[in-house]
Amino acid sequence: FSAVDLADLENLSRGINVIEYADGVQLFEQGTEGDAMYLVDAGRLAIFTVDARGQERPLRVFEPGSVVGELAVLDGQPRSARGRASGPLTALVLRREMFRMYVQSRPQVILAVMRALSEKGRYTTAQVERAVQQVSSIAHGRYNEAALLAGETVQADVKVNFAPSRSTQVELNDALADLARSLARREQSQHDGATP
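and the corresponding structure tokens:
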């Protein structure tokens, strides 16, 4: 919202609630109505998707200055993810009704939201492109390349070590590196004439 006029921001601030959340408090649930957006003022807001078995998959952690839930205030569709405080969190909360009334006469606010959406789209695109490159490398037998894309090196004996992590990218990297190791071992054992 840095491009929004200060006077307009002051008007908008009247509709914002400052809320403090304790570590682990869930701010919103995947699939529920999107009724508010959150500006992280202090702390971290972790975003997860929940699969059909109820297992959480971490997507991203938002730091101070980040806006989360702007899609909810624009379209009111169900939330695409779950949001939870990762440590103590202070958030500026803007309800959908207030936002909609406010933007009707202030197009620069819509532009600010579009910039935030664009940044998130670029982030997601970069993550997907990296995953596609890893899968392509594995599919073409370039296991070292796949491991390098995952941020690891492969020794001559095709051992790749990963430290456990909470981020989705690292989990994806782990899974792809495991696949690369498995395929490399299978290919080596077939080359040696052994059974995989």
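(Above: one complete record from the training split.) The chain has a mean pLDDT of 78.
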